[in-house]
Specification:
There is one protein chain. The protein has two domains: about 5-80, Glutaredoxin, CATH 3.40.30; about 90-220, Glutathione S-transferase Yfyf (Class Pi), Chain A, domain 2 (Up-down Bundle). Helices cover about 55% and strands about 10% of the residues. The chain contains ten helices and four strands, in the order βαβαββαααααααα. The protein has a four-stranded mixed β-sheet, with helices on one face. The N and C termini lie far apart (about 55 Å). It binds glutathione (GSH). The site of glutathione has 10 residues, from loops.
Length: about 220
């Protein structure tokens, strides 16, 4: 059986932004898939056996297992009609760099969500704001990062913006409200069907529960 006909199974954790990138790519490319949720605080043995880093996402392709969201989203793009990656090698390389930038922002977000002391929290908010300012001076096109076509780089940032938006709503923490280009890109991303349907319906409640459970500064600011 060719790889394009093989059943895909995405191994997921409901809160994971890296899994969400893969779901957005699957939806944008209209690729059929099954999804299996695991609890990362108590991962099943079968998962630890097949996940080299003990991390989600994994994409099971027949008997093969793919890991790392960038590898998985590019694979999804490669096996389906059309492309969500720019053709020009220079633009493509730049997009990959910005996808990594989005990943590093997700690390900052993790610190921001879990900081136990005020100073570390403030520092993380400031780091996020400075990353957003970098993005503001980088954004050249509309409606999407590369212009008319939604790309993998858009899919990579959408989970970050979804969480920053929730953080603002739930705790009053703002990170990019003064940046018009970032805000209008964020708003468009959050209205995109593939993005809206890339998380479970109860995502805001689960996110709120996670902040409460972490019991850090952000959790203490929940309204
Ligand atoms: N670089 C990885 C990051 C994936 C990642 O950090 N996944 C988190 C959940 S959002 C995870 O599985 N954490 C469990 C662990 O590290 O033990 C990717 O892009 O796929």
């Amino acid at each position: 059986m060719g790889v394009t006909n093989m059943k895909l199974e995405l191994v997921s954790f409901k809160l994971c932004p890296f899994v969400q990138r893969a779901v957005i790519a699957l939806k944008e490319k209209k690729v059929d898939y099954d999804i299996t949720y695991i609890d990362l605080s108590s991962p099943p043995e079968w998962f630890l056996e097949i996940s080299p880093l003990g991390q989600v996402p994994l994409l099971k392709v027949g008997n093969e297992v793919l890991f790392e969201s960038a590898a998985i989203t590019e694979f999804i793009d490669d096996i389906s009609e059309g492309s969500l990656h720019p053709e020009d090698p220079l633009v493509r390389a730049k997009n990959r760099g910005w996808i990594e930038f989005a990943s590093s922002c997700l690390e900052v977000l993790f610190t921001l969500n879990t900081s136990a002391d005020e100073e570390a929290f403030k520092q993380a908010v400031e780091t996020m704001r400075s990353r957003m300012r970098k993005l503001e001076i980088t954004l050249e096109h509309t409606p999407w990062f590369n212009g008319d076509k939604f790309s993998l780089v858009d899919a990579a940032f959408a989970p970050l913006f979804m969480r920053l938006d929730l953080l603002k709503e739930l705790t009053g923490t703002t990170t990019c409200e003064d940046l018009p280009k970032v805000c209008s890109w964020r708003d468009r991303l959050l209205q995109q069907d593939s993005v809206i349907s890339s998380v479970v319906e109860e995502f805001p409640t689960i996110y709120r529960g996670m902040l409460k459970m972490k019991d850090g500064v952000a959790g203490g600011r929940l309204s």
